[in-house]
Specification:
Elements lengths: L1 H18 L10 E9 L3 E5 L6 E4 L17 E8 L7 E3 L2 E2 L4 H10 L3 E9 L2 E7 L2 E6 L18 E10 L4 E5 L1 H18 L5 E10 L2 E5 L4 E5 L10 H4 L5 E10 L8 E9 L8 E10 L2 E6 L2 E6 L11 H4 L5 E9 L5 E4 L3 H18 L7 H14 L49
Parallel strand pairs: 6-7, 14-16, 19-21
Antiparallel strand pairs: 1-2, 1-4, 2-3, 4-5, 7-8, 7-10, 8-9, 10-11, 12-13, 12-15, 13-14, 15-16, 17-18, 17-20, 18-19, 20-21
Amino acid sequence: MADRDEDFAALLDASLAERAPSRTLRRGARVRGTVVAITDTDVFVDIGAKAEARIPRHEVCDEHGTPTVTVGDAIEAVVADPKAPEGPRLAVRISGTGDRRTLDLARAAQLPVRGRVTAAAKGGVEVDLGGGTVGFCPASQLELGRAADLEGYVGKALDFVVTEIRDRGRSIVLSRRPILEKEAARRAEERLRQLEVGEELEGTVDGIEPYGAFVDLGGVRGLVHASRLGGGSARPSDLLRVGETIRVRIEAITPDPAGRSPRVDLSFVAALEDAEPPPIVEGTVLRIEGGGIFIETPEGEVFVPGRELDLPPGGDPRRIYKLGSRLEVVLMGTDRKGRMRGSVKRVDDVRAKVDFRNFQRKGHGGTGGGLGRLGDLLAAANVSAAPTSTATPTNDANRPARRGAAGDPPRDEGTRRPSGTRRHVTPNRRKGRR
C-alpha cells in the first residue's frame, strides 16, 4: 500500500513538472491561457503553470455583472502577483484601487483602469480611481472624435489607460482613445469578414476629397473614386454631402502589404432619395455650451453640435440662441454616447424634400419620359411658377423686331431704339468728319 502511494506521488510530481512553465512568471508579464472554471469570486485560467491562475470575476464582467467569457475560451491577461499563495493572480482590468504600485503596473502593461467621472474641468474630466486617487483625462482623449459635452460624462464608470504618472503619483493622466481604437479595430475586422466583392449595400458618406468620397460601411471605410461617381467632370463635393446615405457596390478588397486595414474600392450605385426624410420636431433650448446646444423635444433631449447649428463663421451659440427659445430641429439619430443628435441647419433642406415628396404623391411627379429626378424637379418648379390668371399680351412695341422671320410684320424704322443698346458708328462717319 505504501509503495502504491509513493508511485502515485511520483506520478503527480512528474505531471506537475511537465506542466511547469519554461520561464518564471514575472509581475507585469502578459500571458495567454484557457478558462477552466468560473465561480462567484474568481475565474480560473490554465496558463501551463503548476497551479491554475486566478482572475477576479468582476474584471471580466460587463456593466450588468454577467461574465464576458465562458469555460473553454482563450483569454489574455497580465501577471499581477506571480507568488500569490492560492496561485498566480492575473488581471485584465484594474478597478477599486488607486495605489501607486498597481497604477505603475497598469501603465507598464497598458491594463485598463476602471474609474468614475466625478467632475468636468477645464479641458477634460476628473476621474475617481479609488483609494482617494484622482486622475485627469483630457477632452481630446475621451473619444475618437471631439467630446463636446463634458458634463454628460459625469457619474459614468469608464475604462481608461494610464499614460503618465507625475509628481510621485499625485498627478495621473488618463486616456480612453487606446481602448476605443482597439474596440473599433475589432469591430472593423469582424465587419470586413462579412463583406464580399460585388455586393451592394448602404453606407454613409463620412468624408469628401477632390479625388473621391469616403463611405462608412458599418466600421469599415471604403472609397468611391471620383471617376466612379457618375458625375462626369463635376467635383465630388458637388454631388454628395457628408452624412448622406448612398448605395454602393464593392469593386475590390485589396490587402495592405504593411498589415494595415485592407483597401475597399467602391462604386456609386444610387443616392437613397426615396428614403423617408428624417423627422423635424420643435423644442425648447435647455442648455447652451461652446460645443453646441441641448433642446428639449417631445422625443426627449436632443444635442445639436456646433457644426449642425446655423451659425456664421466663428459664431458663438451663446450669442445666437437664448435659453427657453423655441427652435425646430432635424432628428439625426444617436451619437456614440447614445444621445439623440439633431441639426438646425438642415431643417430647410429636409422641409424642401418633404414638400417635393408630397408634390409627387399628389400625382405631379415624373411622367416616365426619361427625364428622371432632375426633370421632375424642373417640372415642379415650372408648375409652381406658372401664373394662375390668363397671361397678359406682350407689348411688342417695346422690343426690337426680328429680321427674316416668317410671318413677322415689316420693321418700323421709326421705332425707338430700346434703352441700353449702343449705336454702331463706323470710323468714316465719326463726329466732326465729312
